[in-house]
Amino acid sequence: MKLITRLLTIAAALAVTAAMLVGAVSAEERYGKQKVVYHINYNGGDDDKAYRGALRNIQNHINAVGKDNIEIKVVLHGNGVGLLQHATGNEKLQMDVTNLKTQHVAFNVCNNTLVGRKIDYSKDLFEVFEDDIVPSGVAELSRLQQMGYTYIKP
Question: Which pTM was predicted?
């Protein structure tokens, strides 16, 4: 009887281990490689809550898929450029943006918005460089979708 109990215990332990391994494998393989463009063109609110929420969505996406399995671009135009404007004086936004950049998230800023609103990217925006500027935010969204990026508007 003890042998049967011992064998059942071992079998149960093996079944649980196998289920965990299958679950782990399927979680890693579930999403595959992804290319995603996040579209931000809205105001973040008085406390930047909407901007921080969007950045949290991006981090959650990376956490689910794995930073080595995802390529993310964030396209900012219109009021969305405010995210990087507000980040110049908001340490929480700075930390969120910097953290995402260290995970290879690209922040692309619309030149039409910069020109139309007389924004100097080198002085008025947090950590924006010439290579981050795209001619048109909406045209960039279309281009990226044609290249196979999934469109997400948080």
Answer: 0.82
Identify the sign of the CA torsion 16, 20, 21, 25: positive
Q: Residue 53 is encoded by which pair of tokens?
A: 């929420």
pLDDT in tens, 118-144: 999 999 999 999 999 999 999 999 999
Q: What is the full DSSP assignment across the chain?
A: -HHHHHHHHHHHHHHHHHHHHHHHHHHHHHS-SEEEEEEE-S---TT-HHHHHHHHHHHHHHHHH-GGGEEEEEEE-GGGGHHHHHTTS-HHHHHHHHHHHHTT-EEEEEHHHHHHTT--HHHHSTT--GGGEES-HHHHHHHHHHTTPEEE--
